[in-house]
Design a protein that fits this description.
Elements: E1 5-6, H1 8-15, H2 19-29, E2 38-39, E3 45-48, H3 52-63
Helix pairs in contact: 1-2
Length: 64
Amino acid sequence: MSKNHLNTNQFAARFGVKGETVRRNLCVKGHFLGVKPIKLPNKRLLWPDVSPDQVAAQGKRAEG
């Protein structure tokens, strides 16, 4: 695994939610808080190593 990516459970823990929540958002909305993973050939997901602060900053820019 790349040091720039996290598995689903690591990514979810960073945002204080369960992995199931992240996977559900991906299935329903196509993203989790605007973040999209890389889908590997073995069906696993690699999420970018971003912090909640970075995601919030992106959201503010999109609104502005």
